[in-house]
Amino acid sequence: MRKDGVLENRMESEKPHVPEELTSRMRKQGYHFVGRHSAAKICRYSANSMEKNGKGCYKHKFYGIGSHRCIQATPAIGCNLACRFCWRIIPEEEGFKWNEINAMGDWDDPVKIVDGLVEEQKKIISGYKGKKTVDLKRWKEANDPAHVALSLTGEPLFYPKMNELISEFHRRKISTFLVTNGTMAHALENLTTLPTQLYVSIQAPDQELYEKITRPKTAAAWKNFQKFLDIFSKKSTRRVFRLTLIKNLNMVNPEGYAELIKKGKPHYVEVKGFVFVGGARRDDRGLSYGQMPNEEDIREFAVRIAELSGYKMVDYHESSKVALLAADEKAAGDRIINFEK
Question: Does an H or E element contain 52, and which?
């Protein structure tokens, strides 16, 4: 390695902002870092979709995405919530602060991030080629990503160049799903280049439960969430609510969820069951295996929300434990998008 300072300094500038103790743990969990604050990780459905008899994820069934051509990624690893049901590593639980992890004014270039994520995805799937069970045609297609889900970890809207990032993905004919926790109202207001589909996570039907479940790290999180929904309702792209239901905790007050739906006006509502995996299994989160709702629980609660909000249940994905509600017949009929290049 050269010691004249050129290569050494360049590599130093590309080291993740995340402390090494945390990156080491995340790498063991399958995270691949890109630049200083972005990351990708293969989803089990992306891997399974490359198999000869493999099946896609709920996004494939609900919206037509080819799961094997999807990158699961984030441009910002830090998050200002610490949701008890989150399967990911929460930095504070490892002794780090969320605002120590984000770049905070020193952010990578959007083109560099897209280049890096596409190349990293190719590296991630390279080993699948030799598996006898893999469909070689699908594997080759997977090397040309057609979709990115900005949902891996953290809060993507912390990245201040999101307009340029989405533009760069779309320029390469890569469709985008952006999943946000609903606290970055100002960032959403400034979002003018919109993703193919814009998500907001709905963790609770009222303020008391919201604060109990999300354990916000910043003041006025619920107030910001309400403002976020007002702005969200006016964004001219496909809008989606994502509910994660936990038995004996937030699987209550369907009237409250219906009111939030009326406020945010999503085209679709995904009603998903909590899964007791990853970080959610930590003792200090206070959750248990028995709090996972079954299919009957999810369907019943989804139908009740639909009745109260005027929506219609149109689909269900069994392995993901998620029901899909559509705002009206038009949304139900238009939900499949041609994502393929």
Answer: none
